Amino acid sequence: MRRCDVLVVGGGPAGSTCATALVRAGLDVVVADQASFPRDKVCAGWITPAVVEELALDLADYRQGRTLEAVRGFRLGRMGDRTHLHRYADPMSYGIRRCEFDHYLLERSGARLALGLRVGAVARRGARWIVGDRFETDMLVGAGGHFCPVARSLGAEPDAAVIAAEEVEIAVADGDVAAGALEAGVPELYFTRDLTGYGWAFRKGAFVNIGLGVRVDSPSGAGNRAGPQLRRRVEDFVRLLIDMRRIARAPETRMVGHAYVTCRDSRRRRFGDGFVLVGDAAGLACERSGEGIRCAVESGMLAAQAIRDALARGSTLASDLCGYGEALDRRFGAAACAGPDPAALAPASLRRAVAAALMASEWFSRRVVLERWFLRSGEEALAPLSQPATRP
Fold this sequence. Notes:
The chain is α/β, with parallel strands linked by helices. The chain has a single domain, classed as FAD/NAD(P)-binding domain (3-Layer(bba) Sandwich). 29% of the residues lie in helices and 24% in strands.
C-alpha cells in the first residue's frame, strides 16, 4: 500500500495545479487517474492571460510541439440573429488542446503518478484515508471532474441542474470538416434562442472544435444524460454553421458528451474531515459562461494553501479546512455559488425579449458578455505558483 501526505484523484488542471503547489511546498503527493496521459479530452479549449499568469506558464516552452493559438477576436450573437465581431490588439486568450495541456501540467507537477487505474472504495480510518486498498493518505483531494469518484463516495447530493454538452475536435487536414469561414484565433459563440446555453466553433491552429452546451434542470441527477434532445439541438446548430458558411459540412467524427455544474447549481460539500473537492468535482464552473479551466486552476491553488496550513497545524479536520470554503466564497462570490438566480424569477418570454435587445447592443456584447462573463478581465489573477525548490 502506497503512503503519501496527499492523494489527488484526478489529473486534470484542478488536480495537477493543486499537486504542483503541494509538491513545491515539500509534501509527498500522489496523483491517481483512471486514464493514461496524454488522454483524449474534448474542450473548446482556451485559457486566459490570468491562467497563464497563475500557472507561471512559459509560453515559448509550451508552444514547442503543441497548439497555442493567440486569440485576438471573438464573434458573438444569438442563433439566427446578427452577430458582433470584436477584435483586440493584444491576445485575450490562447487556444490550446486539452490532451496536450493536461499532460503538460501533470508532467511538470513533480508528483508521483498512478495512472491507468481506478482508485476503488474510499474509507476513513482514524485520521487517515484508505483508498481502494492501494493508498493511505492524510489528505484526499477530489479532482476527478463532474463524476469524481471521491465526490460520489462522500455522498454528494444531486445538483440542481447540469450543463450537458456535446462537442468534437478534429484536424482540418483530415478532411473531416472544412473550416469554411472560421478564422483561426477567433472563437465564435452563439447563444440558443431560449437562452439555456450556447454553441461554439473555434479554429485553433490545425484543429477545429465545435460543440454546444445547454442547462438541464435535474433535481434527480437525470440531466447528466440529456440524450436525444441534446443531440437534436447539436445537429440543428451544426446545420446553422453550415448555412452561415462557417463550416462546409458536418463532422463525420461522432461528438463526445459530458456534463458539469456551475457554482450556482452545485449542492456539493466542498470540504470535510481530511478532504477537499476542486474544479468540476466541486461544481465550480463559472455561472454565466460555464468556463471551467480558470475555476479549476484557482480552486486547486486555494485548496493547496488550505491543505498546507492544516498539515502544518497537525490536523485535517473540517474545522481546520474551513479556510478553503471561505476562500472560494471570496474568490467566486458567495451569492454566485449558492441560491437561485434572481433573473430566473422573470417569465421566460420576458427574459428572451430582454436578452434579444441586449445582445443586439455591440457594447453589451463586448463589455458584459465577453469581457465580464467569459474573460473575467476585471478580476486580478491569483499570485502565481511558486517555482520548484532548488535542490542542494
